[in-house]
Protein backbone atom coordinates (compact mmCIF):
# COMPACT_ATOMS: atom_id res chain seq x y z
CA UNK A 1 0.00 0.00 0.00
CA UNK A 2 2.81 2.40 0.82
CA UNK A 3 4.48 1.59 -2.49
CA UNK A 4 1.26 2.39 -4.36
CA UNK A 5 1.04 5.73 -2.53
CA UNK A 6 4.64 6.63 -3.43
CA UNK A 7 4.08 5.65 -7.09
CA UNK A 8 0.89 7.70 -7.22
CA UNK A 9 2.77 10.73 -5.84
CA UNK A 10 5.33 10.46 -8.62
CA UNK A 11 2.59 10.53 -11.24
CA UNK A 12 1.49 14.02 -10.13
CA UNK A 13 2.66 16.44 -12.75
CA UNK A 14 4.31 19.53 -11.28
CA UNK A 15 7.39 21.70 -11.64
CA UNK A 16 10.66 20.59 -10.22
CA UNK A 17 13.02 23.10 -8.68
CA UNK A 18 15.34 22.93 -11.70
CA UNK A 19 12.48 23.58 -14.13
CA UNK A 20 11.42 26.56 -12.05
CA UNK A 21 14.98 27.97 -12.00
CA UNK A 22 15.31 27.56 -15.79
CA UNK A 23 11.97 29.32 -16.34
CA UNK A 24 12.98 32.21 -14.06
CA UNK A 25 16.36 32.49 -15.83
CA UNK A 26 14.69 32.70 -19.26
CA UNK A 27 12.21 35.29 -17.96
CA UNK A 28 15.00 37.44 -16.49
CA UNK A 29 16.96 37.33 -19.79
CA UNK A 30 13.85 38.50 -21.67
CA UNK A 31 13.16 41.34 -19.23
CA UNK A 32 16.77 42.53 -19.39
CA UNK A 33 16.66 42.54 -23.21
CA UNK A 34 13.49 44.62 -23.22
CA UNK A 35 14.89 47.06 -20.66
CA UNK A 36 18.01 47.61 -22.76
CA UNK A 37 15.84 48.69 -25.70
CA UNK A 38 14.40 51.67 -23.79
CA UNK A 39 17.60 53.77 -23.49
CA UNK A 40 18.37 53.07 -27.16
CA UNK A 41 14.90 54.30 -28.16
CA UNK A 42 15.24 57.43 -26.01
CA UNK A 43 18.64 58.18 -27.58
CA UNK A 44 17.28 57.80 -31.12
CA UNK A 45 14.32 60.05 -30.28
CA UNK A 46 16.62 62.72 -28.80
CA UNK A 47 18.88 62.64 -31.88
CA UNK A 48 15.87 63.13 -34.15
CA UNK A 49 14.68 66.03 -32.00
CA UNK A 50 18.10 67.72 -32.14
CA UNK A 51 18.26 67.30 -35.93
CA UNK A 52 14.80 68.83 -36.30
CA UNK A 53 15.74 71.85 -34.17
CA UNK A 54 18.97 72.26 -36.17
CA UNK A 55 17.07 72.22 -39.43
CA UNK A 56 14.62 74.83 -38.14
CA UNK A 57 17.45 77.09 -36.95
CA UNK A 58 19.08 76.72 -40.37
CA UNK A 59 15.85 77.58 -42.15
CA UNK A 60 15.29 80.56 -39.85
CA UNK A 61 18.67 82.09 -40.73
CA UNK A 62 18.24 81.33 -44.42
CA UNK A 63 14.82 83.05 -44.50
CA UNK A 64 16.24 86.04 -42.64
CA UNK A 65 19.02 86.53 -45.20
CA UNK A 66 16.75 85.98 -48.19
CA UNK A 67 14.35 88.65 -46.89
CA UNK A 68 17.02 91.33 -47.51
CA UNK A 69 17.58 93.11 -50.81
CA UNK A 70 20.47 91.66 -52.85
CA UNK A 71 22.73 94.68 -52.14
CA UNK A 72 22.05 94.43 -48.37
CA UNK A 73 23.42 90.86 -48.18
CA UNK A 74 27.07 91.23 -47.20
CA UNK A 75 29.70 88.79 -48.40
CA UNK A 76 31.60 87.09 -45.58
CA UNK A 77 31.36 84.59 -42.76
CA UNK A 78 29.41 84.95 -39.52
CA UNK A 79 30.16 82.43 -36.80
CA UNK A 80 27.76 82.21 -33.88
CA UNK A 81 29.18 80.09 -31.06
CA UNK A 82 27.33 77.59 -28.90
CA UNK A 83 24.52 79.30 -27.05
CA UNK A 84 23.88 81.99 -29.71
CA UNK A 85 20.20 81.45 -28.99
CA UNK A 86 19.38 81.22 -25.27
CA UNK A 87 16.51 78.84 -26.04
CA UNK A 88 18.87 76.44 -27.83
CA UNK A 89 22.26 76.53 -26.06
CA UNK A 90 23.48 73.27 -27.62
CA UNK A 91 23.79 74.66 -31.15
CA UNK A 92 26.45 76.61 -33.08
CA UNK A 93 25.81 78.27 -36.45
CA UNK A 94 28.11 79.38 -39.26
CA UNK A 95 26.74 81.49 -42.11
CA UNK A 96 28.80 82.00 -45.25
CA UNK A 97 27.89 84.35 -48.10
CA UNK A 98 30.12 84.48 -51.18
CA UNK A 99 29.87 85.47 -54.80
CA UNK A 100 28.97 82.65 -57.16
CA UNK A 101 30.00 82.06 -60.76
CA UNK A 102 27.86 79.46 -62.56
CA UNK A 103 30.65 78.88 -65.11
CA UNK A 104 33.06 77.63 -62.41
CA UNK A 105 31.09 76.87 -59.21
CA UNK A 106 34.12 75.41 -57.40
CA UNK A 107 35.99 78.73 -57.35
CA UNK A 108 34.14 81.78 -56.01
CA UNK A 109 34.86 84.91 -58.05
CA UNK A 110 36.51 87.90 -56.41
CA UNK A 111 33.90 90.33 -57.68
CA UNK A 112 30.12 90.36 -57.84
CA UNK A 113 28.78 88.25 -60.70
CA UNK A 114 25.15 89.00 -59.87
CA UNK A 115 24.69 85.78 -57.90
CA UNK A 116 25.48 85.11 -54.25
CA UNK A 117 25.72 81.71 -52.58
CA UNK A 118 24.36 81.50 -49.03
CA UNK A 119 25.39 78.53 -46.93
CA UNK A 120 24.21 78.02 -43.35
CA UNK A 121 25.67 75.21 -41.21
CA UNK A 122 24.43 74.19 -37.76
CA UNK A 123 26.56 72.08 -35.39
CA UNK A 124 25.47 70.27 -32.25
CA UNK A 125 26.67 67.45 -30.02
CA UNK A 126 24.89 64.11 -29.82
CA UNK A 127 22.85 63.49 -26.64
CA UNK A 128 25.72 61.52 -25.10
CA UNK A 129 28.18 64.25 -26.14
CA UNK A 130 30.45 61.86 -28.01
CA UNK A 131 30.34 63.31 -31.52
CA UNK A 132 29.48 66.57 -33.23
CA UNK A 133 26.78 66.49 -35.91
CA UNK A 134 26.00 69.09 -38.56
CA UNK A 135 23.32 70.07 -41.05
CA UNK A 136 24.08 72.36 -43.97
CA UNK A 137 21.68 74.29 -46.20
CA UNK A 138 22.71 76.26 -49.25
CA UNK A 139 20.91 78.45 -51.75
CA UNK A 140 21.64 80.99 -54.45
CA UNK A 141 20.20 84.48 -54.69
CA UNK A 142 20.43 86.70 -57.77
CA UNK A 143 19.98 90.38 -58.51
CA UNK A 144 16.49 91.29 -59.62
Question: Helix/strand-derived class?
Answer: alpha+beta
**Residue runs with pLDDT of under 50 for 5 or more positions:** none
Characterize the largest beta sheet: strand count, sense, and whether it forms a barrel.
Answer: 4 strands, antiparallel
- Taking all Cα atoms into account, the compactness measure Rg is 32 Å
**How many independent structural domains?**
1
The arrangement of helices and strands along the chain is: HHEEEE
Number of helices: 2
**Cα distance spanning the termini:** 110 Å
**Which term fits the overall shape?**
rod-shaped
What portion of residues belong to β-strands? 25-35%
| Strand order across the largest sheet | 1-2-3-4
Q: How helix-rich are the residues, as a percent range?
A: 40-55%
Rounded mean pLDDT score: 87
Strands, total number: 4
Structural notes for this entry:
Strands 1-2-3-4 form a 4-stranded antiparallel beta sheet, covered by helices on one side. It has 2 helices and 4 strands. It has one domain (21-142). The longest helix is centred in the first third of the chain and has 50 residues, at 17-66. The model has no long low-confidence stretch (mean pLDDT 87). It has helices at 2-11, 17-66; strands at residues 76-80, 91-99, 115-125, 132-142. Strand 3 and strand 4 form a beta hairpin. It is an alpha+beta fold and 144 residues long. The termini are far apart. Helices cover 42% and strands 25% of the residues.
Amino acid sequence: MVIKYIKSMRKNKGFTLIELLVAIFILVIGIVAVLQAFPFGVNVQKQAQMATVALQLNQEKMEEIISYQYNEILVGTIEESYGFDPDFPSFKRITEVEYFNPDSPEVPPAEDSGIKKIEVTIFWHTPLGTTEKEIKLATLIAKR
